[in-house]
Write a structure and sequence with these properties.
Structural class: alpha+beta
Helix content: 10-25%
Strand content: 15-25%
Number of strands: 7
Largest sheet: 4 strands, antiparallel
């Protein structure tokens, strides 16, 4: 800090001396102003006057564009190094391929689905419910599928991996079922 103060003091002293030297030199004599010559204005016929209209006009529409003054990493949110530690829900104990989509309820503002774990227990899931060992979030619930998005960070990048859980169709659909007897026709 002492070296910096000494350097700054020396620089200021040198500038002050340079300014004093310029002030002591004789000032040049000011030139006398010349009389302005007024030229007559020529009239141009109206037919020859052409207005230059810009060929295109540009308007900026910021809708759908990101704010250039905000970091795109802030928009993604914090990424935990160990998502399993942050996920305390029972569905985080299983891999996504071990879970089976059993039922879906849609047509509402908050759709929900039921997922069955390997032990046969059913769990109700909604949007933003965490599930899977990677701590993925349920991002979309459709009438026949549930999308779980897992987030990974590697090489300074944030990678989103959407995983789709499909509702399995019933295998035993038999149109020839007798409602009265509870048996299939032909038995």
């Amino acid at each position: 800090m002492k070296t910096f103060n000494a350097t700054m003091t020396t620089a200021m002293l040198a500038l002050a001396l340079a300014a004093c030297d310029e002030a002591s030199s004789p000032a040049p004599k000011a030139a006398k102003p010349k009389a302005a010559v007024v030229e007559p204005v020529k009239e141009v016929p109206a037919e020859t006057v052409v207005q230059q209209v810009p060929t295109h006009s540009y308007t900026y529409n910021p809708v759908g564009k990101r704010d250039p003054f905000r970091s795109p990493i802030e928009d993604l949110g914090p990424v935990n190094a160990n998502p399993v530690a942050s996920c305390n829900e029972p569905l985080c104990a299983f891999d996504l391929d071990q879970l089976k989509l059993v039922a879906v309820v849609t047509g509402d503002a908050s759709p929900m689905a039921m997922v069955e774990d390997p032990a046969g227990r059913g769990h109700i899931v909604r949007r933003n419910t965490r599930m899977g060992r990677q701590g993925g979030k349920v991002t979309q619930i459709l009438r026949d599928s549930v999308t779980v998005t897992e987030v990974f960070s590697g090489n300074g990048e944030i990678i989103k991996n959407p995983v789709l859980l499909q509702l399995k169709p019933d295998v035993k659909l038999d149109p020839a079922y007798n409602m009265m007897t509870g048996k299939n026709f032909g038995e």
